[in-house]
């Protein structure tokens, strides 16, 4: 059983291949085929695409649905395949298929009508809807554009095995055309696209060519020269309308059947054969291409090739080369390539990477594993007969464009000019090695265009596939899907390795971050300790300075004190007993005539400055420090003796 991730990839691939947008419908079809992608695709795509389910397995038939086909194979009856076609369902399990919705865009003259029906409806149901929209009786309508041959009103749409989106057109040959001005009708014809089915008579090969109504007959013939190598002046045509008398006429006024017209072209038996001789030899041939051939009959004598006379070394529809020769900047060359490709084949084409091949490698291979893609290199060659069909029918198919845009980085290069070819081979040798470059160098012109599928690896870039131009849409899609399977397996390994590497790196980053935070914390702690120590040292210094200052003041006061009088002094002596806050006492005798400031100086000399301490008397209790220090001890009544207390000021 496929894992959920595998099923998501299978579902995306299935929707890209089949165009089924409804997810429930797509899942139902995949479950009916046990999530077998190839079986589910074979069960949905039309049988004429060349993929059938046989009773005993899957058989791939390369039918004539795409590109140039053999006339004989187109004319011969195709073996019946409706009996062999079946849905693959798991054994012992039948899942009822839900109705599938089909979208039709129906064109009638200047109108487009969108019709949505279940595949169980009939062709007649479409006509009834159109009858109400267009106001045209259903019996008068011819509904054209079916890919199968026999379709009538009772045909069930499911039996036609149609894709989801379809384009049809209505013809009403029994009704007169609407009245309008000639200029309006002409302008409408110029804007229409004509499908010319050109059969190359000698090789019995058909080419389906799209031209706008403004293209000229001469442009058609030059384009056919590019496909058949028959110079315009040697082309012998059948099927042109009688009104197409001049090669300068546009297809809109030439009388061609719209939207499809069949023509046959062959080579004139003699290069100098005139138009009148050709008409005599073949009465059913309408037009022989002279295109002023007589004027250029002997051009080869002057070294001028047949194709060069009309500038058709490339297709006539190609107004300018895909890429300038000797372009200095690859990005500018790719811009011109993309613009020219759009002008030739329309806007529905792969999105080409604009930049150098190295930049394309960087975009595809060197991002995160989940974002990586395969690199598709498209090598164009204007001189290959396969280029026009490959570009218009394969490379511009919506399924291919969608699949490439989702899974690939697409880079392109033009190999037509020898200088550009040599430049790419040099790039190829540098990036892929000489073997791959030699493989491309040996490819013949008719094997172009080439489609290289590149997968990036750790040590080198690997070329998974080289797809040549002679392929079909189904084969191209299968080879792209096969490359995607190889890439997906490698991508899953890369994602696993990348996740493990990221997990290891995350652990390492977390450890480094934790270590950094630890270092920061240690540094902050160390700085805080250093700041604290510095602050303590500063405070200690201040304290020491203050103590030194106080000690100096104390010593100064102690030295300035008058000598203590003797006990037997004849003068009046006051004896003071002073008690410190710690309970100690010290005594001293003072002359009664001494000023109170002398007592204050004495107390300060003992370490108790009067600015910080107050001196209190006992009876009565008083603050001696509030008294006038210039008065004598006798005047302040501290005579003949007194006991005082020291108390710190608040």
UniProtKB/TrEMBL annotation:
Entry's Gene Ontology molecular function annotations: NF-kappaB binding; ubiquitin binding
Tell me the ranges covered by the UBX domain, including all copies: 569-646
| Keywords for this protein | Apoptosis, Nucleus, Phosphoprotein
Q: Where is the composition biased (Basic and acidic residues)?
A: 501-511
Which stretches are annotated as coiled coil?
none
- Say yes or no: keyword Phosphoprotein present: yes
What Gene3D superfamilies does the annotation carry? Answer: DNA helicase RuvA subunit, C-terminal domain, Glutaredoxin, Phosphatidylinositol 3-kinase Catalytic Subunit, Chain A, domain 1
The question of whether Iron is a record keyword is answered with: no
Q: What is its main location?
A: nucleus
Question: One GO biological process from the UniProt record?
Answer: apoptotic process
The record's Gene Ontology cellular component field reads: endoplasmic reticulum; nucleus
Biased composition of type Low complexity is found at 68-84
Q: What does this protein do?
A: Ubiquitin-binding protein. Required for the progression of DNA replication forks by targeting DNA replication licensing factor CDT1 for degradation. Potentiates but cannot initiate FAS-induced apoptosis.
PANTHER family registered for this protein in UniProt: FAS-ASSOCIATED FACTOR 1, FAS-ASSOCIATED PROTEIN
Question: What does the subunit section of this Swiss-Prot or TrEMBL entry state?
Answer: Interacts with CDT1 and ATPase VCP/p97. Interacts (via UBA domain) with FAS (via death domain). Interacts (via UBA domain) with NLRP12 (via DAPIN/PYRIN domain).
Name-wise, this protein is: FAS-associated factor 1
Q: Which organism is it from?
A: Vireo altiloquus (Black-whiskered vireo)
């Amino acid at each position: 059983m496929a894992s959920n991730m595998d099923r998501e990839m299978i579902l995306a691939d299935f929707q890209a291949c089949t165009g089924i947008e409804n997810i429930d419908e797509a899942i139902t079809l995949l479950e009916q085929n046990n999530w077998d992608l190839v079986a589910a695709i074979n069960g949905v795509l039309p049988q004429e695409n060349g993929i059938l389910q046989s009773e005993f397995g899957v058989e791939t038939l390369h039918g004539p649905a795409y590109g140039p086909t053999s006339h004989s194979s187109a004319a011969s009856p195709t073996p019946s395949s409706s009996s062999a076609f079946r849905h693959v369902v798991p054994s012992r399990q039948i899942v009822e298929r839900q109705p599938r919705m089909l979208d039709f865009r129906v064109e009638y003259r200047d109108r487009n009508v969108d019709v949505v029906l279940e595949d169980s409806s009939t062709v007649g149901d479409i006509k009834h809807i159109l009858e109400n929209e267009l106001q045209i009786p259903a019996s008068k309508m011819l509904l054209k554009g079916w890919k199968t041959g026999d379709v009538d009103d009772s045909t069930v749409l499911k039996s036609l095995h149609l894709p989801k989106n379809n384009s049809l057109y209505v013809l009403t040959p029994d009704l007169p055309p609407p009245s309008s001005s000639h200029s309006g009708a002409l302008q409408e014809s110029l804007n229409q696209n004509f499908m010319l089915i050109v059969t190359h008579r000698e090789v019995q090969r058909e080419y389906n060519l799209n031209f706008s109504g403004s293209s000229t007959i001469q442009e058609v013939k030059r384009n056919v020269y590019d496909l058949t190598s028959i110079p315009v002046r040697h082309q012998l045509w059948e099927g042109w309308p009688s009104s197409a008398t001049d090669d300068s006429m546009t297809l809109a006024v030439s009388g061609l059947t719209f939207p499809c017209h069949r023509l046959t072209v062959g080579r004139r038996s003699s290069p100098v054969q005139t138009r009148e001789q050709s008409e005599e030899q073949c009465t059913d041939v309408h037009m022989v291409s002279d295109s002023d051939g007589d004027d250029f009959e002997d051009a080869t004598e002057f070294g001028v090739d047949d194709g060069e006379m009309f500038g058709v070394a490339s297709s006539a529809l190609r107004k300018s080369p895909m890429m300038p020769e000797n372009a200095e900047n690859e990005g500018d060359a790719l811009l011109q390539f993309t613009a020219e490709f759009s002008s030739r084949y329309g806007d529905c084409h792969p999105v080409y990477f604009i930049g150098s091949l190295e930049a394309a490698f960087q975009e595809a291979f060197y991002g995160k594993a989940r974002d990586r893609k395969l690199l598709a290199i498209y090598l164009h060659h204007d001189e290959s007969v396969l280029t026009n069909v490959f570009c218009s029918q394969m490379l511009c198919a919506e399924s291919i464009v969608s699949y490439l845009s989702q899974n690939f980085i697409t880079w392109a290069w033009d190999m037509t000019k020898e200088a550009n070819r040599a430049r790419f081979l040099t790039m190829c040798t540098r990036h892929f090695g000489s073997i791959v470059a030699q493989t491309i160098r040996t490819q013949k012109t008719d094997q172009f265009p080439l489609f290289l599928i590149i997968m990036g690896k750790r040590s080198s870039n690997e070329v998974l596939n080289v797809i040549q131009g002679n392929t079909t849409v189904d084969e191209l899609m299968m080879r792209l899907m096969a490359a995607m399977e190889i890439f997906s397996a490698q991508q899953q390994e890369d994602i696993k390795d990348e996740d493990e590497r990221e997990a290891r790196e995350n652990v390492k980053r977390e450890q480094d971050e934790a270590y950094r935070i630890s270092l920061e914390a240690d540094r902050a702690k160390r700085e805080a300790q250093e700041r604290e120590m510095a602050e303590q040292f500063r405070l200690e210094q201040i304290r020491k300075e203050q103590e030194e200052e106080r000690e100096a003041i104390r010593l100064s006061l102690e030295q300035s004190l008058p000598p203590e009088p003797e006990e037997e002094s004849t003068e009046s002596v006051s004896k003071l007993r002073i008690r410190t806050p710690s309970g100690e006492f010290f005594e001293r005798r003072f002359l009664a005539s001494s000023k109170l400031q002398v007592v204050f100086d004495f107390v300060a000399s003992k370490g108790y400055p009067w600015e910080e301490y107050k001196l209190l008397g006992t009876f009565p209790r008083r603050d001696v420090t509030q008294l006038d220090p210039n008065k004598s001890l006798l005047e302040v009544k501290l005579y003949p003796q007194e006991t005082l207390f020291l108390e710190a000021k608040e």
